[in-house]
Amino acid sequence: MIEIKNIEKSFDGISIIKDISTSFEKGKTNLIIGQSGSGKTVLLKCLLGLHEPDSGQIIYDGVSNQNMNESERTLLRRQMGMVFQGSALFDSMSVIENVMFPLDMLSELNEDEIREKAIKAIDRVELTKAIDKLPSEISGGMQKRVAIARAIVMNPKYLFCDEPNSGLDPKTAIVIDKLIQEITKEFNITTIINSHDMNSVIEIGEKIVFLVSGEKNWEGTNKEILKTNNQSVTDFVYSSELLKKVKKHI
Amino acid sequence: MFYLSDIGRYFIMIKMSFFKPSKWKIQRKLIFKEINDLIIESIPIVAILSFFIGGVVAIQTALNLSSPFLSKSLIGFATRQSVILEFAPTFMSIIMAGKVGSYITSSIGTMRVTEQIDALEVMGINPLNYLVFPKIIALLFYPFVITVAMFIAIFGGFVAMSFAGVPSEAFISGIQMDFDPYHVSYAYIKTVLFAFILATVPSYHGYYMKGGALEVGKASTLSFVWTSIIIIIVNFVITQLLLS
């Protein structure tokens, strides 16, 4: 579980994250949603430890980020898995090498054990046939799966995904969303996903935090978001003509 | 102020690249890869350029030694001195700033743009140690490249003079004339410093670049400009200290 208390972050005097407090539960897919520029990525990077908040605290399973020294931060990071928007796979490495990479770098396992664990993670995302291919030789959806396999191979306690289905067709996007949700349940991890995709919100949003201009505007579940009277949320959720038509039938 | 903060950040980057080292097994693989990419793959271009520039240096020296009172062996002497003191270490390093420097900046810059560096950080890996340190170690072999440049440039001068009808004995005796080993030491001291500049300045421009694909190109150009300027300034300072 991750709790955040009164987090603030600004860059060059411009406030990006304004006094956000919320919590993200274990075993659930938690979504941070909002328009582009609403502060989703900055909040995610604060949670990842890539940005240091100006004030407030982040509590990872009872341990506050404020009391951590550098080595504790490094250990915490090793309990995190991240799926980047562009997958961030290493171009010069094959699929299996990408998945083996964190184990190679950080674990004390031998070559065979590392390979076995990597193959297991690749099997889990159903990419066994592409094991020796380079990232440039596989589709965007497959690259996302490799990124998920790389993120889960270290058995993380926390999984972060930055717009994991951006640039994917709707069918593949749903497959990726479902895969992340299944993995969250299977490994009982705290998953936080940045998204502005309404399909993801409705499909897997067990907890949703809605940001507007760096502030938390609303929070709830995927069932509640469709019925809320919050104007900002409804403007965001029903921004497309298709969803406006759907709303009439709800 | 802008340049001061850049200089500070550059030195912090160098310090950080020696911290939190990766496992030796991984490090060794990376160092061998960088030796191949930065040193071995540079040899062909260095050899071609050195051969022809050595030839041109010899031809131009011969052109200026038209007096019958001057010995033809001076052509070999002047070629050797030009090549060892300046052409091989300095001129080649500026060419390498274009070849190796641009490669380093664009490869690290692309990793920055595609969030691969962020991925390393999230995994708890020190990206500077992973990316910059192997390049610094690989470029310790840079004096080998400069040695190749020295030999091939002098050979280029020899071949050019053979075609021009200068007796080969005269050219060879010129190469051996008044040889001062300290000049070679001076050349290698410069080379080691240039190698460090070639590894770190382009890495800095790649690592701290911001923006997208267009900015990777701009960062490569900027990296070449700054690497060349720093090499020229360091060359001047070292020459003042060691030869004046």
How would you characterize this protein structure?
The complex is a heterodimer of chains A (250) and B (244). Chain A has helices spanning 40-48, 70-77, 95-106, 111-124, 140-152, 170-187, 198-204, 222-225, 231-237, 241-249; strands at residues 2-11, 14-24, 29-34, 55-60, 63-64, 80-83, 158-162, 190-195, 207-212, 215-220. Chain A is of the alpha/beta class. Chain A has a 6-stranded mixed β-sheet, with helices on both faces. Chain A has a 4-stranded antiparallel β-sheet with strand order 2-1-4-5, covered by helices on one side. In chain A, helix 3 (95-106) crosses helix 4, helix 5 (140-152) packs parallel to helix 6 and helix 6 (170-187) runs parallel beside helix 7. Chain A starts with a strand and ends with a helix. Chain B is elongated and about 70 Å long. Chain B has one domain. Chain B is built from 11 helices and no strands. The chains are: A alpha/beta (250), B mainly alpha (244).
Topology:
The complex is a heterodimer of chains A (250) and B (244).
Chain A: E1 2-11, E2 14-24, E3 29-34, H1 40-48, E4 55-60, E5 63-64, H2 70-77, E6 80-83, H3 95-106, H4 111-124, H5 140-152, E7 158-162, H6 170-187, E8 190-195, H7 198-204, E9 207-212, E10 215-220, H8 222-225, H9 231-237, H10 241-249
Helix pairs in contact in A: 3-4, 3-5, 4-5, 5-6, 6-7
Chain B: H1 2-16, H2 24-39, H3 43-64, H4 73-113, H5 116-122, H6 127-131, H7 133-138, H8 142-163, H9 168-176, H10 181-207, H11 213-243
